[in-house]
Backbone:
C-alpha cells in the first residue's frame, strides 16, 4: 500500500520514514524565496531545502563558503512563509558549527526564527557528538556525506567521492555512526550509484541523493538547475526540465513525477 503523504498533509520525520519503508520516493528541491517556496509546496515537493547553495545561484559566488548565518536566516524566514505542507530544512553554513555551543545556538535560531523542521550538517563521523547533542535537545538533523561543498578546498575540488574501496568503506561507516548518533535523514552528494545503494540498504533512516543514482530513498536538486537558469555550468547529475515544459510549474511537477516514478535520475545523470 502506498505511503505517499496526502496532498495537504504536513510532511514530518515520521512521514519520511514511512515513505522509506513503503518504497515511495521522496521528492526534494531547494528554494530561496517565498514565491518559489509556495510553488514547490503546491506542486507536491516533500522537502524544501534552503541551501547555502544560495551563495552560488543567488549571490554569484564561487563557492558556498562565504554564506553567513544572517543570510541563511533571512532566506529561511521568507521560504518558510510559502510552505504549508513540505518539511523545511536549512543548511548550517560554513563555520556555524565550529563548536558545539555555537552549533546549538545557530541551529536553535533556525528552529525559532525560521520555523525550520530540521538542520543539515556536512561532515562524517567527526560530527557524532554534535549530532548527539542536537538530537538530545530536540533538533532534527540531516547528515551530509559524499561531496561536501563547505570542505571543497580540503577535498581538492568538486569531485565524485567514494570511488576507491577505502573511501567507500569510510562512507559506509560514517553513515552508520551518524544514524546511531541520532540523525533523522542522510544526504549523499556525488557518490557512485553502487555505493549509494549500499548506504541506502544499510540505513534505517531515509537517504536522499544528489548525483547518487536512483536507488536512494529520494532525490534533491537545486531549483535553478532544473529550470536551466543557474549561472555557470549545470552539473552532470542535474536535468533541465524547462526543455520539456511550458511553464515553471509544469517543470517542477515533471521533476517530482519523474522522481516518484524512478525515471530520474537515469544513467545520463548518474555516476558509476
Residues:
Amino acid at each position: 500500500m502506498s505511503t505517499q503523504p496526502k496532498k495537504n498533509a504536513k510532511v514530518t520525520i515520521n512521514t519520511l520514514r514511512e515513505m522509506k519503508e513503503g518504497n515511495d520516493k521522496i521528492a526534494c528541491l531547494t528554494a530561496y524565496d517565498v514565491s518559489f517556496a509556495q510553488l514547490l509546496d503546491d506542486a507536491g515537493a516533500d522537502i524544501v531545502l534552503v541551501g547555502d547553495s544560495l551563495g552560488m545561484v543567488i549571490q554569484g559566488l564561487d563557492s558556498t563558503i562565504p554564506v553567513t548565518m544572517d543570510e541563511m536566516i533571512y532566506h529561511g524566514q521568507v521560504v518558510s512563509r510559502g510552505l504549508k505542507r513540505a518539511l523545511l530544512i536549512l543548511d548550517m553554513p560554513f563555520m556555524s558549527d565550529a563548536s558545539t555551543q555555537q552549533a546549538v545556538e545557530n541551529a536553535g535560531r533556525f528552529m525559532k526564527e525560521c520555523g525550520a523542521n530540521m538542520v543539515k550538517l556536512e561532515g562524517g563521523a567527526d560530527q557524532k557528538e554534535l549530532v548527539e547533542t542536537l538530537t538530545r535537545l530536540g533538533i532534527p538533523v540531516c547528515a551530509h556525506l559524499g561531496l561536501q561543498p563547505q570542505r571543497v578546498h580540503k577535498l581538492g575540488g568538486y569531485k565524485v567521492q567514494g570511488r576507491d574501496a577505502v573511501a567507500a568503506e569510510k562512507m559506509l561507516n560514517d553513515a552508520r555512526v551518524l544514524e546511531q548518533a541520532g540523525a533523522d535523514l542522510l544526504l549523499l552528494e556525488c557518490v557512485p550509484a553502487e555505493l549509494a545503494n549500499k548506504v541506502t540498504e544499510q540505513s534505517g533512516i531515509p537517504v536522499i541523493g544528489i548525483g547518487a543514482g536512483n536507488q536512494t530513498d529520494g532525490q534533491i536538486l537545486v531549483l535553478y538547475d532544473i529550470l536551466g537558469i543557474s549561472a555557470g555550468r549545470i552539473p552532470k547529475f542535474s536535468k533541465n526540465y524547462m526543455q520539456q515544459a511550458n511553464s515553471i510549474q509544469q517543470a517542477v511537477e515533471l521533476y517530482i513525477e519523474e522522481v516518484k516514478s524512478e525515471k530520474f535520475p537515469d544513467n545520463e545523470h548518474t555516476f558509476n
Remarks:
- The CA atoms of residues 3 and 196 lie 23 Å apart.
